[in-house]
């Protein structure tokens, strides 16, 4: 019996070695990548292929188990970062809109309350527009009188005094600045029109049952 022990021991050692080899092979990966236009595979990546796109294969079955894209260059990385920022900005805007709509539905008990809040804004901007229009008319009349006086002096052969010329220039600059402010106020009122329409549409959507039909159009207050 003793003479069979060495053979048995050797067989067991061989089996263990084969099993360990099979397990080691099963745990390994094979990598395949393109190098100079041809496909190269190996069980280790050379330094030249670390940034290359590659497939990962099972060491035991040879089946594809994964994939790694190539490393991005500086320009592609910047483009990727820009795209990620854009997507985040869109997600943030969508979340802000969701919170805004929720606050809109909670802040006003009825559509009339919502419209009443906007009427306050309309009253304020309309009063500003009215004041700017009146100031523009007054400045225009004053500037016209000064220009007429300067023209009369020139026609009579008299020079336009420097204080008068400076005053005309200052009045003209003030008139142009006020014109721009007046135009800005008009654009602001148009923006409030748009905001009211959007707010009413969102309010109706938040309050209405999901099966309701689309809301009808909204009307903004008209200027007096």
Automatic annotation (TrEMBL):
Residue ranges, compositional bias (Basic and acidic residues): 201-210
Entry superkingdom: Bacteria
Region: Disordered, residue numbers: 74-93, 200-224
Alphabetical keyword list: Signal
Record's signal peptide: 1-22
Protein name: DUF4124 domain-containing protein
Native source organism of the sequence: Luteimonas cucumeris
The organism's taxonomic lineage, starting at the top: Bacteria, Pseudomonadati, Pseudomonadota, Gammaproteobacteria, Lysobacterales
């Amino acid at each position: 019996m003793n003479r069979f022990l060495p053979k048995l021991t050797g067989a067991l050692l061989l089996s263990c070695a084969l099993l360990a080899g099979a397990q080691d092979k099963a745990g390994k990966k094979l990598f395949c990548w393109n190098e100079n236009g041809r496909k190269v595979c190996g069980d280790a990546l050379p330094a030249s292929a670390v940034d290359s796109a590659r497939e990962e294969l099972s060491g035991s079955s040879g089946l594809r188990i994964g994939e790694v894209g190539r490393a991005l260059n500086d320009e592609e990385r910047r483009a990727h970062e820009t795209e990620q920022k854009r997507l985040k900005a869109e997600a943030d805007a969508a979340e802000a809109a969701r919170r805004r709509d929720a606050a809109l539905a909670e802040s006003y008990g009825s559509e009339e309350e919502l419209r009443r809040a906007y009427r306050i804004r309309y009253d304020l901007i309309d009063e500003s527009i009215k004041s700017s229009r009146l100031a523009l008319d007054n400045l225009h009349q004053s500037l016209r009188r000064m220009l007429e006086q300067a023209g009369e002096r020139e026609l009579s052969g008299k020079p336009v005094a420097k204080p008068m010329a400076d005053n005309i220039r200052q009045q003209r600059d003030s008139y142009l600045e006020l014109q721009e402010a007046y135009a800005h106020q008009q654009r602001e009122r148009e923006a409030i029109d748009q905001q009211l329409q959007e707010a009413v549409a969102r309010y109706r959507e938040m309050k209405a049952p999901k099966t309701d039909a689309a809301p009808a159009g909204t009307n903004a207050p008209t200027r007096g």
